[in-house]
Amino acid sequence: MDHAEENEIPAAAQTYCVERPIFSHPVLQERLHPKDKVSDSIGDKLKQAFTCTPKKIRNIIYMFLPITKWLPAYKFKEYVLGDLVSGISTGVLQLPQGRGRRIAFCLGVCRFGFVAIYLTEPLVRGFTTAAAVHVFTSMLKYLFGVKTKRYSGIFSVVYSTVAVLQNVKNLNVCSLGVGLMVFGLLLGGKEFNERFKEKLPAPIPLEFFAVVMGTGISAGFNLQESYNVDVVGTLPLGLLPPANPDTSLFHLVYVDAIAIAIVGFSVTISMAKTLANKHGYQVDGNQELIALGLCNSIGSLFQTFSISCSLSRSLVQEGTGGKTQLAGCLASLMILLVILATGFLFESLPQAVLSAIVIVNLKGMFMQFSDLPFFWRTSKIELTIWLTTFVSSLFLGLDYGLITAVIIALLTVIYRTQSPSYKVLGQLPDTDVYIDIDAYEEVKEIPGIKIFQINAPIYYANSDLYSNALKRKTGVNPALIMGARRKAMRKYAKEVGNANMANATVVKVDAQVDGEDGTKPEEEEDNVKYPPIVIKSTFPEEIQRFMPPETVHTVILDFTQVNFIDSVGVKTVAGVKCETIFFSSFIAQVVNDLTRNRFFENPALKELLFHSIHDAVLGSQVREALAKQETSAPPSQEDLEPNATPSTPEA
């Protein structure tokens, strides 16, 4: 016997046998003892919110000062070299740059960061790819050494590209040569870093070497004066004295301030999510908002530009081995050093060198175009979100593009819930497993039972579609069923000569029924009357011979994937009529929704709820067997109720 056979699990050990009652909802509730619920009154919530505990204090400190959380856990030997190289490399790219300030801070304190959940991964990746194209086009004029107007807003990418192409005849060959040389060296160096990253203690700081070499060559050969190469130029030294913002201008800029705050946050959270997915950590949207708000509020006192995420420098920091916020701190110290003392050292740095560094580090963003084949194979809806976000952000600008993308993403959610998939399930023979009958040949339907499944909530937007799909796939049409029953009763009444028979009600559950044309009875506004679900009908054999044979006696509605149902959905479900309708695999929220909408005014309806599909199938088979016994036996005196089953007329 070989090793594989020795480790083979016996077939008997791969099976299980369960013996338990059929779990309808009442039976299951008898076995369960609910836990005491925590009070959710407004007073208790306020009391809990304002209760001070050590845990809450610690969480608040972590939220406002995240350094207190990650610094004690900092792995010095593992991170410090990468952070040092990354901080220096990112710092040398920084130039003095610059009103969403307090708005962002207030939004963060108010927990507005939840909006980040609407920035799905396809949206984020399409948005950051479009942002990368914006950055790329803005760098072209520096790479080619041409002078063009700065464009912003709708179609700014097109205008910027056209402007560069129109001036390409005036390109500076020296600037282009320097830029391409740096571009090639960086590409080769990054490939080397990637290939030998396991052997290198830290990535080689290529950007830093490029800046130093570019500055040295430019200064040594006097490229600005000799070849008219565009350089960084004079950098202002020192910090401006702090001053309060001019509040008289607030009414003129508050609309733009809100827009800048939203777009700045969106760009930041998009970049953060991209890097978080790559490196496996979580992002707190509220914390990002607070950080942006504090930076802009303090920076406004020194007349800085609005602060947000820099796509290019974030990629440089990540690509050069930065692991923690310490790299950002070092980059900031580099800028402070340049502002206070060493700015003159970078005056000869060619702009083409900076543009080449930025373009090379956009490679990762451009690689996101490879998402398109993946989403084409996996999800056309996510592909639509990606393309819509990219195109709108590219041509409408990042602000309008972002708004368009979020709207499209929300519309896809509505579309998915409004147009879900509907399936009729069958049983894998001799098991309690139920699968889509259209998917596998081995799956068979159970005679007389239809198991119908929807993969979305049932609410006003899809209730009609749900009803139509249920009729189409199960063959259960309430209007036709009730019409056939009335027609059979009339035929029997006509045959026996009893005209009152046509008005008799043979359904044991007394409730209103739909008309023959499928119309529903009028409903009182204050007392909603749902169309009934027929639990069981008892027809004498004399009437049954006038009715067409019923192939479906039970419909089981599988609610496994239904997480809520509104009042319109309850009416739709209640309008289904066959001999029996069961609910299976329900969740507590759905039961609460049905209860709030007075679906269980008739207590017998709770007997229709079952723990699983298999419980519902077994319950249906038991009820059907009992019903056949009742219909085959002579009617008892209890069944001969007034207005229920008339007595047989005398001969």
Features:
six-stranded mixed sheet; 2 domains; mainly alpha; Transcription Regulator spoIIAA; 651 residues
Structure, described:
The chain has about 650 residues and is mainly α. The chain has two domains: about 60-415, no CATH class; about 420-630, Transcription Regulator spoIIAA (2-Layer Sandwich). About 55% of the residues lie in helices and about 5% in strands. Strands 2-1-3-4-5-6 form a six-stranded mixed beta sheet. Strand 5, helix 26 and strand 6 form a beta-alpha-beta unit. Helix 19 runs antiparallel to helix 20 and helix 22 (about 465-475) runs parallel beside helix 25. It is elongated and about 115 Å long. The chain starts with a helix and ends in a 19-residue tail after the last helix. Residues about 95-115, about 500-540 and about 635-650 have low confidence and may be disordered.
Fold topology:
Layout: H1 3-6, H2 25-31, H3 42-49, H4 54-64, H5 67-70, H6 76-91, H7 101-109, H8 121-144, H9 156-166, H10 173-195, H11 206-221, H12 223-227, H13 250-279, H14 285-300, H15 311-319, H16 325-342, H17 351-361, H18 363-366, H19 371-378, H20 380-396, H21 398-418, E1 422-427, E2 434-436, E3 449-454, H22 463-474, H23 478-496, H24 541-544, E4 554-558, H25 567-574, E5 580-584, H26 588-596, E6 609-610, H27 613-632
Parallel strand pairs: 3-4, 4-5, 5-6
Antiparallel strand pairs: 1-2, 1-3
Helix pairs in contact: 6-11, 6-15, 6-16, 7-14, 8-9, 8-13, 8-17, 8-20, 8-21, 10-11, 10-17, 13-14, 15-17, 19-20, 20-21, 22-25
